[in-house]
Amino acid sequence: MFQTQTSDLQLWASIRQDDESAFNELFKRYWIRLYKTAYQYLKDKEASEEVVHDVFLNIWDRRGELEILTFSSYMLTAIRYQIYNRMRAAKSPLIYGDDQIPMNNFPDYNSAENKIEEQELHQEVYSYLQSLPKRCQEIFCMSRIDQLSNDEIALRLGISKRSVENQITIALKHLRICLKHLAAIMLMFL
């Protein structure tokens, strides 16, 4: 008959209680997706496998400390972080001993990676903004993208400056909550 699939959050709760079978299930559920993401950037089967295994090993090792609310977003961000670290390490030049060369003589190897990271962050922020009311989205974009002052927004939309401030505050609180997993991931790998 029908077999109901355990949700990611239920599996995560079990993993936090040291349930290895739940961890194996989560591994099976996300391994191929993370591998494909890693391979897309690294173009190396072995390196891609290592990166994915590093992510899962880190999750298992820190299962008691981590707070994960949206597992798919967390996993995608974690794999990207590992990929960027791997790519950055592969491209960074080694300087030995007294060979002191001014740092401005080195090209910026990470500019493409930084651009990709920035684009992905913009896409993620935009997707989180989509869950806000249209008016709130509009006011936030006018403030942060169009760089309009609160007075200019209020004048254009025919509302009070206080309403503009309230809508921006709502949007920022929403984004802070949605993007909290990024800060956790950054701390996880420090």
From TrEMBL:
Official protein name in the record: RNA polymerase sigma-70 factor, ECF subfamily
Domain RNA polymerase sigma factor 70 region 4 type: 123-175
Domain RNA polymerase sigma-70 region: 26-91
Family: Belongs to the sigma-70 factor family. ECF subfamily.
InterPro entries attached to this UniProt entry: RNA_pol_sigma-70-like, RNA_pol_sigma-70_dom, RNA_pol_sigma70_bacteroid, RNA_pol_sigma70_r2, RNA_pol_sigma70_r4_t2, RNA_pol_sigma_r2, RNA_pol_sigma_r3/r4-like, WH-like_DNA-bd_sf
Source taxon at top rank: Bacteria
UniProt xrefs under Gene3D superfamilies: 1.10.1740.10, Winged helix-like DNA-binding domain superfamily/Winged helix DNA-binding domain
NCBIfam families: Sig70_bacteroi1 (TIGR02985), sigma70-ECF (TIGR02937)
Keywords: Sigma factor, Transcription, Transcription regulation
Record GO terms (molecular function): DNA binding; sigma factor activity
GO BP: DNA-templated transcription initiation
